[in-house]
Amino acid sequence: MEQQTEILLRKAREGDQHALNLLFRTWYRRAHQMAMRYVSDEHMAREAVQHAFMSVYQHLDQLQQSEKFVSWLYRTVINCCHMEGRKKQRSRLIELNLAEAHQPRAQMADRDLQLAERNRLLMDAVERLPEDQRTIVILKELDGMKFREIADLLQISENTAKSRLYVGLKNLKQILTQQRLIKEMYYEE
Hints:
- Helices cover 76% and strands 0% of the residues.
- It is an all-alpha fold.
- The protein folds into 2 domains: 86 residues, RNA polymerase sigma factor, region 2, helix turn helix motif (Rna Polymerase Sigma Factor, Chain: A), CATH 1.10.1740.10; 81 residues, Winged helix-like DNA-binding domain superfamily/Winged helix DNA-binding domain (Arc Repressor Mutant, subunit A, Orthogonal Bundle).
- It is globular, with a radius of gyration of 18 Å.
């Protein structure tokens, strides 16, 4: 995929609209998943990704190294998520998924309801973390990125990323313990 992305980037820089469309289609799903981790609102995620790709298109000539494209795209998506949150004057970036909230409870099995509620509580707890810790927890634990990728993306050292993750997970555990979610999860299994 890296080689394909590099070719598409080169062609897009040369003005090839088809290559730009292919680049968008190739990376849209991943960018959208990243945005959903931050905002958990379909409309806001789509808006953020759309703005991110517009920004990427406008500044494509400034990208020095094609291999940095993914980090650059993800950083732009994260920034656009923050902008969308501010535009909507929301202090919270992660909230209950609207589709889940509107789904009739009678149609969901009890287990599904419990899992949905746990996920909501977990995401609420992640939201309560300071932004630098929240970002690392999302990138590492939810998106499965490696510390090297996170460090490149956020322009910090790997040790800083590891430290923020450690503190973030420690704080997350404290928040979840206060919410009694950890005890509940432990005793039900």
